[in-house]
Amino acid sequence: MLTVDDVTQLYVKHHEQLREVREEQRALLRARPGMRAQLDDIEAEVTYLLLRDRRPTTVVEIGSLHGWSTSWQLRALRDNGAGALHTYDIVDHARRNVPDELADRWTFTQGDVRTRRLPSTVDYLFLDAAHSARFARWYTRALLPTLDPGTPVSVHDVFHGRRAKPYSEGSVLLRWLRAADTGWFTASAKRAPQTYRLVQECRADLGLGDPVHPGRHNPMIWFTRR
Question: Does the global pTM surpass 0.85?
Fold first, then answer.
């Protein structure tokens, strides 16, 4: 299971390139004033860092909205010099926002992912789509069990508060993780304030404390398929 020590070590290892990517993302927001940036800074950066560390061949992103998370992931694959991102969403806003220079590693499929064919192998799964119990029941039954053991998974919008909301995606997912005896990591400010503080201190020490995105909830969780 990912730990705060793992995360801070990744920050130290990749902080110079991460600083450049943060500036690229900041410039992207300026160039696309209507773009809704869904990921807060820590969860976006940790996603980038994990992709740099794991060097996946095939990344699947379910839910992109305006492409903020998509561009973060594509920059990680670019900096790795390997890998491809397959994005699925019912809306195609991301197509208008992802920079052309990143699109050579990107395949976008519009429509309900539940009716689409995914790549035969998934090396990293990023979930940020319909945040409903119904959708979570689908992917905990039909998608997560098909992943190879050791596959990293991240799910957004689980911990905006200290606990996942009842009858929400987060509550369904956490119940599935308990049943599967699978641990998880979060840097959510509300759920894991000490972890959040330690990561913030590391970022500040590395000169990465200035915000790219104003959000501070960082509600994402990460786990590894057992």
Answer: yes
